[in-house]
Amino acid sequence: MSDLPNCPACGSEFTYDDGIQFVCPECGHEWSKAAGGDSAEDDKVVRDANGNVLADGDTVTVIKDLKVKGSSSVVKVGTKVKNIRLVEGDHDIDCKVDGIGPMKLKSEFVKKA
């Protein structure tokens, strides 16, 4: 019936072409045409400010003073953050900073320790 690929997330056959990507109306999953049937997010590589590949459980160091939104606190340069977790989105590092608590960081503001 249709030559469009099934959704890699839920297997739905009701996918549609949305310009440069395919979209699944049932689960909302989007993937690029270049990826074909494979999910492009599974192969995403997160790199630090120096270009080193980051992985879950790594220790990173903050390379710039970062203001904490909604607070007067600041994460200072040189702060070590242990046991990071990589997540999807703009802020791709989920971690717990000593003295501040849980927060999300952008990988461009850290370097691998």
TrEMBL record:
InterPro entries, per the entry: YjdM (IPR004624), YjdM_C (IPR013988), YjdM_N (IPR013987)
Domain Protein YjdM C-terminal per the UniProt entry, residue ranges: 46-113
Domain Protein YjdM N-terminal, chain residue ranges per copy: 4-32
A Pfam family recorded for this sequence: YjdM
Lineage top rank: taxon: Bacteria
Family the UniProt entry places it in: Belongs to the YjdM family.
Protein name from the UniProt record: Alkylphosphonate utilization protein
Provenance organism: Halomonas heilongjiangensis
